[in-house]
Protein 1
Amino acid sequence: MSLEKFMNQAVSSWMSSEGPDSDIVLSSRIRLARNIKQVNFPTIFSNEEAKSVIQNIEDRMSKSSFDKFGDLELLLMDELQPLQKRVLMEKHLISPHLVENANYGACLLTENEEVSIMINEEDHIRIQCLFPGFQLSEALDVAYEIDDWLEEEIDYAFDEKIGYLTSCPTNVGTGLRASVMMHLPALIMTQQMNRIIPAINQLGLVVRGIFGEGSEALGNIFQVSNQITLGKSEEDIAEDLKSVVSQLISQERSAREALEKTSNIQLEDRVFRSYGTLSNSRVIETKEAARCLSDVRLGIDMNYIQGISKNILNELMVLTQPGFLQQYAGGPLRPFERDIRRASLIRERLKMEDKELGG
Amino acid sequence: MICQECNQRPATLHFTKIMNGEKAEFHLCEKCAQEHGDMFMLSSGSGFSINNLLTGLFNMEPAFQGASKAPLEQEKVLQCEQCSMTFQQFAKVGKFGCAHCYDAFSDQLKPIVKRLHSGNWTHNGKVPARIGGSIHLRKKIDELKNELKELILKEEFEKAAETRDEIRKLEKEMNGHDEGGE
């Protein structure tokens, strides 16, 4: 398969199109956790109950589909190849938990992959909306629409006092997790991030690496999300997160300006060295690739490099993950083979840009 | 130093306890300390993992009850009658078995939830449109009642009377809701 064709299939809308503040905010995500009344939570439910959850969803879809983004497609985890699941996970459409632990796990996907509804994950239903750029409120609106659509036919486990009941008490209340993925290279270079993270934590928000809990910040990409789900309204939670993210955006921008003033030539050198590595290396591992991609993306944002699309970081951060590389290769690869594949995929991707430049 | 309980083995654990402003020092050997397990919140045996730390949040109960109760008295098994998950099981995995667990363990749960959500214990967000009919009304009535209190404090009795009438109307509507079944 040609890279171009593969990419067309592989790239989700959140990776390719550009949203507001997309020089710093890569994507915005809203997740709502819901459970069905009178059915045990996935923690202990029987296979029959698990099947009944899927049946519930299928019934809902057969009455009337949610067609704002084209048809919803139901994917059953048991029917997918391990590699296919891994690819969905690397695109952030499903969680590692759904891939590894779920009984009768499934997911509903829209064609543009901006909406994915996970079934039988930690909760019966998890609605996810993933939008490019800084669009939290927009994502929340869509999540609400889906929530209302599901609720027309499905009775939720809801308590008047403490809200939507979830299997883990850390999600009870709104069941809302709002998160924003940010590229913050200048705050790292100027060593401000170490000071900022504890301050953000004090506001009831969490900062993590790109693949969620426990993962490191590959490629200077951070995920900022709310911790508290009970007591505040969904809108307030989103607003609080938005105001912190806006602050981070302006701090990152001023750090970039400061860097340009104080160490212009060193920065330019670093950007082009990384560009050189990406366009010439024959073997490259994840960490180095992530670091170089971050530099190149910064170089694009700061106009050192022209004519390369900004999406390159978002796309290649996902496409150079082990699952994608193996899918592109059409079979399993050992780690060293992956490093070779990764290098060649990045080189090809950069060449595609050159071709487009040349016309 | 010798353990103050058994007066035999060397004391390896030394700590100070302050209760009602009074300071008491303890010097115990590991064995005697373990017998006091819940009092001193010792994790016996293997190292302390992240998991212990997390579920430790759910396990504060013994410490609250104090050391005066005999350990046997605490053995009453708290269990959800719907899905038969016990509180101990919940404390281990940190996840509930069903929606009813929230009721079954509500006394134990309240301090935990409050700690997780910075002191909050009441949902203030979205309410399901369909099953939420009477909830929407009740929320509205609560709001109006607060308004009423404020109006009375401000001695704006005319407006207060209007608000009171509105509350009555809504309450009637709500009773109709309940009687009507749906």
Note: Residues 276 and 292 of chain A are 9 Å apart (CA to CA).
Protein 2
Amino acid sequence: MDFGILQQYGPMLLRGFGNTVLCWALGTIFAMALGLLIALVQRYAARWVRWIIQAYIEIIRGTPFLVQLFVLYYGGPLIGLRLDAVPAGLLGLTIYGSPYFAEIFRSGFRAVPVGQIEAARAIGMAELTIVRRILLPLGLVSALPALVNFSIILTKETVILSIITVPELMYQVQRMSTETFRYLEANLVLALFFWALVETISRLGRRLERRITRHLLTERT
Amino acid sequence: MTFQTSLRAALLGLAAMAAAPAAMADQLADVKAAGKIVTATDMHYAPFDMLTNGTYEGMTKDLFDEVSKEIGAEPVYQDIPWTAELPGLEVKKFDIVIAPVTITPERLERYTFTLPIADATVALVKSANSDMKEPKDIAGKTVGVQQGTAQFRALEAFGKELGGVTIKEYGTTDEAYADLATGRLDAVAGSLPNLTYLVKNRPESFAMFEPANFGPPTYFAWVLRKGDDSASFATAINDALLKMTDDGRVKAIQEKWLGAYTELPREVPTN
Amino acid sequence: MFSIPVFLQAFEPLIWAARYTLLISGLGIALGLVIGTLICAARLSPYAALRGFAAVWVSFLRGVPLLVQLLVFYYTLPVIGIDVPAIVAAVVTVGICASAYISEIWRGAIAALPKGQAEAAAAIGMAPHHIWGRVILPQAVTMSLPALINELILLVKASSLVSVVGILEITRASQAQAATTFRPLEVYIAAACIYLAINLCLSALGRYLEHRTAI
């Protein structure tokens, strides 16, 4: 172990970690929003629209992020789509995450008892109100652990952004290890930073989980 | 199998692991006794290491096949990503890293290098329709290079000399070539043999500068662990390389893969 | 420009490499399902020590990137005398990493079940193993199917990381192919097609099970 190296590379690594957190946070928010939209459209849209969405889900979900990002960044200019590294990375994360989130939301909606929705319709509730008052709150409760789970998975996918030169943690760690041959320290840095990020996310997730289930419990009684 | 027998088997296994000889005193004797040399290389570094339709080939393989013959052991070739090669070497997962590694003073402090196997002098490649000609035309332009390499250092120094070059670092040269093709980069710096091979394969997209190279001459070599136990192994490899240089095998292999022959130093360069 | 011949030629070596992707992700998934179920059981158990162990397991394995886990398993453990073949290291690492995610998926589904069901089952005198086997688990499995399929698809793709221990799977083979042809785009798209084919099978399986088990 050589901690002198961490001192020398510390500021660079911290900046890298900052970029990782930023890309992850923005990418996850956008992907979740797009995923929710997809799940809702898929529930109500005409059959042919559902088919198109299903194809989108299968294709994006079925192919590796590495390939998608590579095609977007290095192949995009062939058809006139020229993005800088960071915007390309965020767009890539958004597209990549959206079908997974869509499936998680769909799964959450499935868990909402049909009887509740039928009851709401029977008392003449508008479809939009049903979505807002019944489908979303109940669906989100059961989808929350999976949402947190996938957000955590997305933290790890951000390391792939290094192939398009986004200066995130992996990019900086690689630079440190190729310059100093300190591979053990490099792995330690990666492990600690990611563990800290993931632990924070899952703690927040658990807190949120407790909070919204408590709310539901009080509403029920 | 009952729980007790499986427990006994597990304990025996652990005991066997603990009893395994900790360190080999002499790597050469060890390699000869095993009858095989376990190597690691990154099989995407044309023309040195390539996987063509699932078969490993390239200049490194031809050279090392001959070296193994001289030593009298079978080579075992493994494709290991570059980032894992040196760590794996250090924990003895492999006997030798045969990926071409540029000899640098920092690396010499930590590893044993064999004699040079190829010229690694840094060169520049540009897009085929670019109007730049000489290396110094990259002043003020954006140039890509592989992260943490000796070529990166050389480019950095050259950039300072020219009064400013924007350097973009990539994980592998493949991404840098791809970005040169998109037009985000004006040029890519890399070792002369790699770039020559690139231009030979994609002449419609890429072209060399005239002259292509700049900076001091550097060399590719193979890497062994540092220490007494690898000394005899290093000597055996170097003797084999010298013998192959003298009987013309090195020349034939270089001409086959690089299209030309460069005479290489007969001692390990120290700078 | 895009070269169709390069694209088509890329398939043969990539399909060959897909053997390893299938082997490692298949065995990894099987191992992950078994360990993940056990970890989830530990997490929900009445014993604090078991719960604590499961919580640390999940936190550590979800927190540390799979790539680092692989590097440690294969390249650091030999220092203390644990030296396993690359393929074993790959399957075990992928499996235990998957177990952390899978146990969280089970836990989420079980937590979302109305408590009243278990209470009702207990009230009519069902034994605990019957409550789990006939009431809780069937519903939890059904509910978590989409999330589980999501996870399995992710695993197939994450198995590309095992190239770091020297296993030539699809992604690694495509990188090698890209580096010799200098046409990464064509080769990567070919690789994407193969991943897509594998994952479409998984998601078709998921849909089939979903229809069969719909509540």
Note: The two ends of chain C are 51 Å apart (CA to CA).
Protein 3
Amino acid sequence: MQWWCSASGEPWTWAPQYYPGVWLSVAVLAVAYHALARRARSLGESRRAVWGGWAGIILTWQVLDWPIGPLAAGYLASAHAVQFVVLALVAPPLLLLATRRALSAWHARGGAGRRVITRVTQPIIAAVLFNIAAVSTHVPAVVDRLMPTQLGAFVVDAAWFVGGLLLWWPILVDAPRRAWFSEPVKMLYLFLSTLVHTGIAMVMLVRDFPMYGIYELAPPWPAWSPIEDQHLAGGVMELAGAAVIFGIISVMFFRWSGGVSGDPPPPAPPRD
Amino acid sequence: MPPQKLPIALAAACLMAACSPPAPRHGVAVEPALARPDFTLTDTRGAPYAFARETQGLLTFLFFGYTHCPDICPVHVANVAAVLRKLPFEDQRKTRFVFVTLDPARDSLPHLRRWLDQFDASFVGLRGDADDVNRIMAGIGMPPAILGTPNADGSYEVAHSAAVLVFTPDDSARVLYPFGTRQLDWADDIPRLLQVRPSGAR
């Protein structure tokens, strides 16, 4: 039994596989989220946002566990692209939207790790770190080296998720508050920060030959060839990524132009 | 070397470089080079196929595998097919892919044809007696196929060499490509291999 999905080189089977490492990671994430979400609810966060966070947890679990997890690890680049979109672009904003009040309150109280968070969520640093994670985990030599090992595959998944949290934090959490990081600047930040991943998707779309050995040499997937799979992966990254990013930029724009701030109100003082 | 001989040496080197085709960059060198083997098996139309005669002067990919192979055979064949499809039509006409089944019990001729057609309808499928095929493989330095123990459902695997042996137009093989050869590697080498002149050509 594997603890994390990795490329096995074995022919694909629909017999379910069990990945205790995925369950444990998702359980830890769910417990941490539950605690933060309860705190956020006490600070006035909407029930809808909290349910959105749970949707983020479930999506994270679904893309890491069987069948998407092992498909992404060793059979289909397109499944890997779905994983990227969910882990970096969908789940983190859902989780941060639900917990932003609790995180802001925690930051205002000067909790442990505050200095590190302040530093790594500085927008330029966050954008750079996200792009380092996105680019380095799409370099063919790196992917082909990491994905056959469980630790390597875990590192890739974790890099996307942590990179996603860093990318979205400055937009959604707003702690520490930065006066210069206004709504128009946030929109520009989101657009510019995700240009590189769009570039990666374009490369995958236009290449004539498969880029990744693990998918090209994987036991065949009956529905499509490795190059079709790669093009599909590029399309997923490009279209799904663009839908998320431009969808959020659109919401931000209309809220801003309508005079509605997307930031949460300052946290209320603790009740006890 | 005396300086007055340097231009002569340079000219000789240039001439040799111009005459010799570019060497393949990938695969594993076969030394000494193998001559194109002369054997006859049955093709998917049920007709005898004399390998040496039918493929003479063509860039020929010879692969021994079986259609129930779950991983290596379909990937290898698909990768060669993907690259050959991208060649100019004239170059495609100078190539042959010949697949010899190591599992004649399950690979009937129609089944073999259907399986190859998934990759390329021009691929040649050959079938023969297992002993004959093993003898052909031994003649080109490949280990014999070994049938695995049948599973409960009667299926079994066949252990076999995973290399594609490539005969150039001069009717010799100097390189073989093990499993793991990428499409990019094939795309890099096939044009080089096509430049080898047929034996007897000037």
Note: The interface with chain B takes residues 9-11, 208-210, 213, 216-220, 225-227 of chain A (CB under 8 Å).
Protein 4
Amino acid sequence: MSHVVESVYALRVEELHKSFGEHEVLCGIDLQVHKGEVVCVIGPSGSGKSTLLRCMNLIEVPTSGRVFIGEDELTARRAKTNHLRSRAGMVFQSFNLFPHYSVRDNVALAPMKVKGMSREEAHERADELLARVGLSAHADKRPRALSGGQQQRVAIARALAMDPEVMLFDEATSALDPELVVEVLTVMRELAEGGMTMVVVTHEIGFAREVGDRLIFIDGGRIIESGVPAEVIANPREERTKQFLARVL
Amino acid sequence: MERLIDLFFSWDALEPYLPSLVRGFWLTVQITFISFFFAMIGGIFLAVLRQQRSASPEPIVRAAPAFARFIAVVYIDLMRGLPALLVVLILYLSLPFSGIPLLEDVGNVTVGIIGLSLVYAAYLAEILRAGIESVERGQVEAARSLGMTSGETMRKVVLPQAIRRVMPPLMNEFIILSKDTSLLTVISVTELVGAARDAQSQTFNSTSLIAAGVGYLIFTIPLTRLLDHYIERERRQHGAGTVVIP
């Protein structure tokens, strides 16, 4: 008799190592992200936090270690990488919208190509998602015509169009002017409240404290400290965490 | 003086040959477009071949893209290094004896188109490669993170942007190709130059050659104007190009 065990984890990383040449950026990371959990990752620049996130959907190929989305191993020898990748949506610091497509087509492209949706279906879904991030009025424009904050909201809608089980945010607000940060954080907060599983690499300590379920501090390619955000921020146990927080707060 | 004018601008000498010159012009236009079409297909194929990389750490898996790159590089070096005329001649003089079913009895025009396509594919490949490399890495990352395959990413995301960026040099190659079609006179294709040469050898009057020149200009000058217009439009839209600060 067999039965399928429903995993409680949306994403798991085991013993993850990543080296660029001689330089080891990630030195054995273990991380489990529960369904519906919002994990915020902080750390100094060069600490490996972005690389960790990029390894989570194999945009960066780990040197060793395993990555699971749900119960499926992305790093498995015969993994259907393309399909598995689409189950983790990614939002980049530099938006990376496709400049030669309209905003609507940016959102609709992957559902058409990967999910085999018809054009009408994909456009309908795109319009829904654009409404959700408050950009219905801009659907026919090129990304270039939008502000940074608007572009990033389109990028979030584009990732959501694949109905991902987990969303990965790679410093999603770092390239934005201060007054545009809020609109993106608001969308991210709404996503979290809607029960989306999220891994958020960020410099926004306030966001981590208010929205995050867990805060992870990474330095030198290792997880130095992990815990409830408010507690880690108020009473960091490790010296390095203290030093880092003292600098950014 | 009158003799010179008559030598180059004699309507009477030109008139009987106008129909054949027009046919030659039309053939030149056709050969140019068809060759460029196949050269683009070949060029895209070669450029993509040259871009093959494997992220796999295993040497055996890495060997396949390395071999693909090697093939592309050898082909491009070969075709760029040889005169187009030689390539066309080799094909023209060898294919009839090759015993290869379909290629054995193709006509002169087809041989010419094959030759020019093969050579220009190599030139276009290098231009397209520069275009592909100019597309930001983040574009590929975004497409792949959405689950698109590398092929879909290339077709839908990278190539459209790459081709747009290298439009000026591509158009340039198109113009050079339109003129290189005249090489096919040596394999007795009566395109524009061939037709003019035939007329001249009958009349010993050079007006037909001048007319052929005019024919090329009618074809190429609008294209260069179009190209300038395109560059200007891109500049206005994307703010690329020379900056003028008053």
Note: The mean pLDDT of chain B is 90.
